[in-house]
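Subject: for your reference before the review

Hello V.,

The reviewers asked for a structural picture of the protein, and I figured it would be easier to keep everything in one thread rather than splitting it across files. Below is the amino acid sequence we used in the manuscript, unchanged from the supplementary table.
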Amino acid sequence: PYEACCDPVVAGPLAARPQSPPGRRPGKPPVLKGGSHAATLTFTVDLYIRSFHGKLEELIQLLRSVALFWPPEWGTIVALDGESHQDAAACTLLPSWVRCVLQPRPPFFRELEGTAFGWIGGAPERHRGLVWKEWSECWADEHSNADFIAVTDSDVVFVTFGIPQLLFEPAGASLHLPRPIIWSHTDEPQFPQTVSSMGLPWISEFMDSFPLTVRREHFA
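And here is what came back from the structure prediction:
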């Protein structure tokens, strides 16, 4: 529940997000200020978290960190499983500043029955759920009108202020929006298999760390 997640008594006074009329964002001093980031925060970002009711405990921990460190001018979207009474109930437990949506199953969901990925443990249903999750993230732009969408899993927490400076570099003279900074690591064995199965030329091996920040117009 909200009291266990983001009540100011638990998470501190910054957890209490001000409510704004539709179409308006709460005002605050410029975030990108000083140094090479001498610009006002004039672009928008929605944090997109794809999860399900079974991950509610870790989702609450993430939202507690969002309340503390994610800029309040930016939005937060939580997408849970559609066609699930448990997920619909979980939506009602989230803070009011979170926009919770229920993501329908993909049209090919039944065809995934019995499908298994060797590098993922657990029952076959978990494998189908992972495909559902990854597929949902490709359609995150349906739930946002922000300039950028920052996609993340629920087993993540933010640990510092200055998120705009960490996620973006200045736009420069020729661009009207800043450029996302992409972090990566190279220790996952499934990436070469994916490249090989798609018949793509081998360039490098990496995975983007969260959040993965993408311009909304770049979604399919």
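For the response letter, the relevant points are probably these. The longest strand covers residues 75-81. Residues 1-39 have pLDDT under 50 and may be disordered.

Happy to draft the paragraph if you're swamped.

O.
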